[in-house]
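Action item from last week, closing it out:
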Amino acid sequence: MTFSMVARCPKTLSLGVCVATAVPAVGSVVPHAEAGVGAIATQAQTEVSYGIRGLRLLKMGFSPQTALEAMLREDVECEKRQVAIIDRRGRTAAFTGKETVDWKGHLIGENHVALGNMLVGESVIEAMTETFEATSGRLAERLLSALESGQEAGGDKRGKSSAALLIVNERWKGARPAIDLRVDEHQEPVKELRRIFEVSKR
């Protein structure tokens, strides 16, 4: 019921997640990230333990794929989940359960993964991927642009309600996220997220 992206900047080693959906409070459950460790999006029938435990496993030295497989094995309802992971080295893993709602799927690229379920079509994550790969600069800007492209391509087929952007980096490691912006219950959440992001830069 969501479209999102996890990504890494190979220059600054920043990690981040952008996400939008048709229900409130997506920023409180889908995006998870820790500086120097990784970034995770857990959605569909969201189980936040994939974010919490996933980061713990990455910190222990597990690869994203090994961490994801370990969590899926222990989840009897794993076919209702959709998860993407990227670690500090740019390694990725993703899973789209068979019981998630169409359109559903994910695309893995260099230093990023786009994913979504209950979308208007595959064009949503294709647009996100194309935009991310065609842009340069700060990770936050690239992720927000990708999210905007996903919304312009149709986004969540039920409508719009909330969006979020989470960025972590070494500068704020152990203190707080570099960026943690959320919009809830808004008619144009992605546009509002952009507005707040621009204000936060002042």
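Closing note: The longest helix spans residues 139-152.
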